[in-house]
Every structure is written in C-alpha cells, then in structure tokens.
Amino acid sequence: MAPGHPECSERLRAIERELRHRGLFDRLQHHEARCATRAEIERAHDPAFVAGIFARAPASGYVMLDPDTIMGPSTLPAALRAAGALAQAVDLLLAGRATNAFCAVRPPGHHAERDAAMGFCFFNNVAIGAAHALAAGLDRVAVLDFDVHHGNGTEDIFAEDPRVLLCSSYQHPHYPHRARGSVPGHRVNTPLPAGAGSAAFRAAVSGRWLPELEAFAPQMLFVSAGFDAHAADPLGGLRLEDEDYAWITAQIDNVAGRYCDGRIVSTLEGGYDLAALGRCAALHIEGLLEA
Which of 146, 184, 226, 241 has the highest CB neighbour number within 10 Å of its CB? Predict the structure, then answer.
C-alpha cells in the first residue's frame, strides 16, 4: 500500500511485539508462508480476475484498483503469500502437524469478491483456505468473521455453496454495504449498530452463531480475525473491549473441540489502532495456543 495507508507493515510488527512482551512468541511454531498457486487462488476467484491482478501489478509506482486498494511493487508477492499461508495452514492441520494456526498476514482478504478487489483486499485469503480444505476432502467448513466490516467477499464467493457456513458480525450501516440476508444452515449475518458494545456482540454470537454451528457440525473452522471493532480503532464504532476477543476465541475453541478435532485456521483481517491490535491479536493467539 502507499505510504500513510492504514493497512501498513507496522500492523504485523505490533502483533509480534505484543507476543514477545507476553512471552508467547517462542511458544509458537513459526512457518514462512509459501505463495499460493494460481490453481489454489482460482478455486475462490474468477481466472480472468486473477489474470488481471497479475497484469496490473506495477514494477514501480502505484496502481489504484479503487480509492482504498492500491498496488505497489511488493503488493502481489505479499498477496500471494497471504493467500498461500491459509492453504499451508490447512495442510499442516490435515497432516496432524498442528491443531490450529494463526496467519499473521497482510494484505487482508475478506472484502475480495470472486471477481473484484476492494477494501484493502486483493485475494480472499480465508476463502482460498476454506476452498483448499474442501478440495482436500472435507465436506463442511465454517467461516467466522468478527471484523467490524462485513465480509462481503467471502459471502460472495460461497453464496451458492452449502458446504460452507458463514457467520459474520459487523457494524451496520458501514462499509461495504453489501450484506445479504441470513439463510439458515448457510449464512448467519448479525449486523450491529455503531456503539453496540460487548453485550450486543456476545448476545449475537451466543444466540445466532452458536446454534447454527451446532446444527452444521463443521469439520474445520476458519476465522476472519479483524480487530477493528475495538473501541480504540479509528475505522469502526462497535466499541468492543480487549476481553471480548478473549471471549470470542474461547467460544471458537469450544466449537472446534466439539466438532472439528480442535482444527482452527485464523487469519488477520482488520485492526488499525496498533496498540489495541497488538493486545487483542495476542489474546486471540493465546486462546488458540491454550485450547
């Protein structure tokens, strides 16, 4: 992204600093993300769209795909590794080399639709991971999205796929203004008004997500882990607190333990207040580590 853009490399450094501060960094397995293959990306995206992203990647300078989504010379390599991290994490879990994974990647992905990049997102990382798991033989996966912005891209990609349950909590009305209605057994949208806070968020998850997850019995959970619903974040207004991210992680751990043999692949989406991002991502990762 261009200098001054909120989706910046300092986001990953803020998470690493907090993990080191809490003594968690050295307790984790660390893997360098591989690049996603074109075939892996095209399970989630239209081949013509993918070809267009490759064709527009600049050797120098910047290319604007929309007012928020800007490609520089390093963007495509980073986007390929961000998508590849999800497929790699799935492979590690299916091989029994890990129980769960957090993909500390950028750019994020959940706004990228089947044939459109938008909202800081180029390829839909979580959708590529979920599609990879299905291609590997799983029959049912769930994607849980607690970013302050609706995961329109993930919804678009899996709109007609009954093998995927999507649960999404987000501020409404807010960017990107594309959410569809809920469909029992397939899509659970729980829009919340600005300022809703912890009680409303937890009630939506407990009352809407958890019963649907129990009925669906997923074989692997994917998490679009956005931390921009935090009260300190400049791009949202849901006013969640640090403890809410520990709580939602505990709920996810419980579902995974009951239905998925503990298998969770979580990936970084939003979160733009660096201090809050570091703390809340560390709480999320600690919850996964202790599951």
Answer: 146
